[in-house]
Amino acid sequence: MKINTPKDRFSLSIDPSWRVLEIGGGHNPHPRANVVVDKYDNTNNGHRAGDIVVRKGQEFILADGENLPFEDDEFDYVICCHVIEHVENPTQFVKEMTRVGKRGYLEMPSLMGEYLVPKGSHEWVFMDIDDTVVGLKKNSVGPIGEDLDFGDFFLYYLQRESIAFKLLIETYPNILTVRYEWEDSLAIEMNPTDEKVRDYFHGAWTKEQILNQFPKRTLKQELSVFFNAFMHLTRAMFSKIITGQRLRKLDNSIGLNTQKVKS
User: Fold this and answer.
1) Cα–Cα distances in Å, from 186 out to 20, 28, 90, 98, 117?
2) Whole-prediction pTM value?
3) Which of 37, 50, 115, 230 has the largest count of CB atoms under 10 Å?
4) How many Cβ atoms from other residues are within 10 Å of residue 240's Cβ?
């Protein structure tokens, strides 16, 4: 069942003693994962941004997420980020993930995120509707990213350059992603037949649908969310500036030492 909607994959409540599996860590495995599995080694096939990375202390296993080589409940926690939209059978994928893990975190692009940042390698589009992960084949929803594609603008340019955009995503992360923390089981429905559910994937959203995905906040809640997001971004930018200054000092120091050696 769903137990939480974390802000991101680094806001998870994982006990230090837990054994953690990540499915599809790819080029950026979660630092908390003890074991990382991936269907491909260094053959990207358009499904990842770079070659496999294995962090110090992590075990890498080549395996298919739809047929994991582990015992039932072998892991205390399973992390899976931006993988399920690529797989052939999401239902079987979730079945395996919940079989080998007692609890975990699943993250994927939202339907809106797929429109804003379309990826040709994605087979499915997803939404979290009433605590159920609902998915449809992307080609059944309509043309996404065929004629116009502003993905780089939203994902790279605005995410890097615009503080206002960063604040928007910090306060409304559902715009780009579905984030689902589960325990024991994970509700998933692929290719739903209920017209009320399918209506989310076609046409203009009603006010009811908007509020279902983005519940209205009180002024106090809105101010609190905004202030926390602003402080988080401020700390991140300040940390980046300090790190940059330290690296420049290190470069200058190395440069001076090099000059001294040359002379």
Assistant:
1) 17, 24, 12, 7, 26
2) 0.84
3) 37
4) 10
